[in-house]
Amino acid sequence: MKRGIWLGVLRACALAVSFPLAANAAGLPKAPPEPPSAWTFDGGLYAWAIWLQGDVTARGLNFDVYADPIDLIDALDGPIITATFEAKRGPFALYTDILYADFGYDASFLKEVNPIAPLTLGADGRVGADYKFGVYQAVGFYQVARTTDANGNDTTLELGPGARWFRQKLDITLHLDSFATLKLKRPRLAKRLDFSRNRDLAFAKTSLLQWVDPTVAARVKHAFGDGQSVTAMGDVGGFSSNDFSWQALVTYDWDGKFLGFDTTTSVGYKALGIKFNDSTSTGTRGVDVVLHGPMAELKVRW
């Protein structure tokens, strides 16, 4: 009895092995191989040399803003974080971008007036600004078109919705040292009267200002072969007169390896426009600025 069971098992194994061999010999199509894991990920840090221009409003007071990359580096008062992450599977992609910076500005001024000849009045002071700035973006892309040219190079178009979260805080402080000096012309009666008063005035604050813009984004990528490509990405968000934002990015990319990891290095130009106004009991607050400049990024892929 046991011998018959073992013979049956051996016959079944022989049939299982011989069936695909016979199918191949007969020219029948092979079963499709199991697809590999479809998810791919890449993430990296980028450097962005920013020119910042526009104006900010705090407690109804409007302040012009202009800074070049050197000004921003000198004004760094904390960490600066610029990073991207992307997860892809087939035609779908989830793209995220993080920008955070903490700036501290300080400027000096000296004003003097002479209401009467021997009396000098003046103010020696400093204006300081503490500006914390964060932009956090997420986009869900879907590949809607793909073409291949005569050289076998692909061009893809992706569209998708997303959101951009802004979080900022601006504190402007005025420090005043006022003084008065009285000088008499007669040497024997010469007297000097010095009067000084120090005062710090935190006269403009936005408190915590944060909002979320829904966005619509598009991305076009053209591959030249040999791991080189050009990527253009843009989006718009907010969609109102008091809340509107936009972004544009163009990069030249090439693939490589670093420490055994697959990498993509990108150089290009990035611009981000932000407009937002809000009315409160203490006055209007908001921001209307453009950040733009060259950028470079190194991404690791796995």
What does this structure look like?
- The relative contact order is 0.16.
- The chain has a single domain, classed as Beta Barrel (Lipocalin), CATH 2.40.128.
- It is mainly beta.
- It is built from two helices and twelve strands, in the order αβββαβββββββββ.
Offer a quick outline of the entry.
This protein is mainly beta and 302 residues long.
Descriptive tags:
72% strand, elongated, 10-stranded antiparallel barrel, Lipocalin, mainly beta
Element order: H for helix, E for strand? HEEEHEEEEEEEEE
- DSSP E strands, number: 12
Query: What oligomeric state do the depicted chains represent?
Result: single chain
Shape: elongated
Quickly give the CATH architecture. Answer: Beta Barrel
Instruction: Show unreliable segments.
Output: 13-17, 19-26
- C-alpha termini separation: 55 Å
The fraction of residues in strands falls at over 45%
Q: Round the mean pLDDT to the nearest integer and report it.
A: 79
Structural class: mainly beta
Number of domains: 1
Biggest sheet, in brief? 10 strands, antiparallel, barrel
